[in-house]
Batch of 3 targets.
Target 1
Amino acid sequence: MRKLIMSAAAAAVLASGGAAFAAVKHTTGTVNTYDGTAMSLVLDDGSIFTLPKAFKDPGLKAGERVRVSWDMSGNNKIAEAVRIVK
């Protein structure tokens, strides 16, 4: 019984550690370019984000300050949300 509890506890610790790495990240910056056709957003620091097909443009334009919530998919940064900040 003790081995079963210890195994379950170890599995829970290992599983929770992986969830921390899957957390959504946030980046704040200024829009360098936004291409609604290619579904891409480039910030002034060179960060490139791929936008989802269902992305609704909140009025992005060069020079606009934004906060991007994103996650990695392979080598690509996939934006989950883009919000204009003042």
Note: The chain has one domain: 24-84.
Target 2
Amino acid sequence: MNQNSVSNLRRLLPGVPNIESPFFESLFANAEPHVQQIAKQLHTNGVAAFKFPEAEFDQLAADIKASLSKSFNEQSWARFRAGGGADLRLLNAWQVDANVRRIAANQSVINLLSKLYGAQAWPFQTLNFPVGTQQALHSDAIHFNSVPERFMCGVWVAFEDVTVDNGPLFYYPGSHRLPIYTNEHLGRCVSTLPTRPDQTMYEPMWRALVEAHGMKPKRFLAKKGDALIWAANLLHGGSPHINREASRWSQVTHYFFEDCAWYSPLFSDPFYGQIYFRKLINIQNGHFMPNRYAGWDIPDQFIDSTRSTQPDGPYHFDANAYLEANPDVAQAGADALQHYILHGHAERRRLR
């Protein structure tokens, strides 16, 4: 197939990632062999392994481990070694560590992801782990999703060898092809809940899907420098970290793609007027990325007006405006924000 034909197919469904397109075979027919191989793995299994393309990777990994080790106190390590829960992770260390940013902004990885998805990739979040995550089975799509959907992926890279004893990743091949189920499919309007929702309300459904489809998990026993791309809706998690004396340093970078809107379905009820839009910085260049829909910037006033009230009230909540709009609340001497969270939102009170 010539390049013009490929471009025409792409224009027919620009809102579907190339790796998940019904025109997949044609879109990658003339791609470089290594891109074809990775694309096929992602299309079929929802994951693809590759060697992280960084000549100085060993030194970078050592420097990151030395730098970030100072961020974890001995009490957290003691709880972990004793078998207890300890949240040993660092969110967005790229903001303080240039080497973390260098891994996240690796140009070869960004170029590869852009070819795989048919849109320009950009990194928006990093997570660094000194041990296995031990995360329950989940799909990232309820936390980070896009419109059009599925324009998100993660890249995990091992800073040291991973064995069955130090918490390898597990995933269910092919699960990325399942529908993306969000709050309305669970019959939940989270905007009316008194407390912040979390993914536990999805976990029984995910487990049932795995069982219903007869899916079997696979583990990724990586060597240092091995990396794994996974698709937005892949069901995955972290195996138990059996040897609590062993570390398992790694980094996750999450990527979105340009010309999309980015939001968290877990905190959103779009047809109830609540959308948890994400206002994010491109790690590579430090610029805020505009939320867009079909080539058009989404107006800021719409983003602000639909800001999810979970759990801390509407975005830029104006207490005085709320009390002026609701004089009975003012006369009662109630705290404006507290009243809105507990009562006003469910009553569909005016904000101004």
Note: The radius of gyration is 22 Å.
Target 3
Amino acid sequence: MVGVSILAANITEIYVQSFLYGLFFILSMISFYALSSHHQRNAGIIGPQPSIVFRRPMFLGTVLLFIVVTTHWALTFVRFFQAFIYFRSGSSPSTFFNSETELTEIIQIGFFMASLVLSDAMFVYRLWVIWSYNKSVVIFPLCSLIGLTVCAVGITFQFTQYTSAAESTYLLIAARWILSDCVFTLCTNVYCTVMISWHIWTVHKASVPLGSRHLRTVMAIFVESAALCTTWTIFYFAAYESESNLHDFVQGTWGTISGIAFMLITVRIGLGWSSKTEHNDTITQLASPRFAAR
């Protein structure tokens, strides 16, 4: 192995992941508020009950992602206690972290892969909505999402087949699943980002003469969030290919990073909803139309 030791990588993961989870938790709470308040405002105009928000795909996806990322973070601390207290009375934490046969390791990998699948699925859903539910646009990302899901199940199952702690995650039988995960999630993120940006830019060019300026900001939000996921994916790919223990650190924080990128889009656009509503209300109050007769 090259780079840092397995123990240093996992201890660093605990500190960094906890910090990232704190950011994710705050963003999640703001996302829940933004989604519910936005749909409740629309409900007051259109007519359906505000409780419908809890059945909307975006809100359900946010809740599921919050549960998955939170469980993954909690398992990190469970493994920390196992390594330093319960496993061989805490005398060999490096051996514990280096073992791929531990049940908590397998469960944590499952939740990690679930976070990637959920975040990519919601990205595809956003693409579908932005393109006015055009089915042909989402054919490619749906295929890559299905590929990611299959690989996620495959790698989790592969770890359950290990019978010895000496078996490594770098073995070819596991590497084919892991590298496929990286390729599929990269394809989904890059494709969705390009298509969303292209569509928003096209609408922006048509709406500039009418005074619309905020669409360019929306496009930047999607690009920045996707760049965060893409950068972490490439980081993991490089660490794994170099067979560095640093890949344990990247893997442990990757799911949380994906959750942060997802929540950032909701929060920043949600804040835009609020500011736009307040701005429109102010304009309405200052320049409300008056008619001479009904």
Note: The CA atoms of residues 121 and 283 lie 38 Å apart.
